[in-house]
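Technical note accompanying the year-one report. For the benefit of new consortium partners, we illustrate the data format agreed upon in the data management plan: each record pairs a sequence with a structure-token string. No post-processing was applied to the example shown here.
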Amino acid sequence: MKPATQHKYSTGEIFSILWRTQRSVLVTVLSILSGTFLLVVLLTSNRATRMSRHSLPADQVEHSLDPAQEERVIRLASYFYCTCGVCPDVPLEECACGFAAEERNFIREQILADATDKTIIQLVNDRFGGLVRRTPSGESDSVINQ
């Protein structure tokens, strides 16, 4: 009969190895979970900030210019979609959320600063995004392509 094989580790050493392995797996899992939690918190807080701007009544946020300037605001806004993240592909000139009002007010400020249409479109796109290169009805897109 063959003699029993001797193991090179004692029972205590085996438990110690298993404990260290499980501990490192536990630390890895906890690190992943905490990183995921932080990411969710950051994304949620950004969304909450956008939602608070989204919920502002547009009539309390927007400032009016003379009719010709307001027509220009609407025409320039028509090149963009609202970028609040809540309104699903709503054109900026039609959107009633507070974020869209903020974007239109930015256009108004640029008009008051005597910026050209091309400059305003570029500034709005750089700051907010949402340029769709769509042409408002009845207009060519020569303003964008200049």
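Partners are asked to follow this layout when depositing records. Residues 46-61 have pLDDT under 50 and may be disordered.
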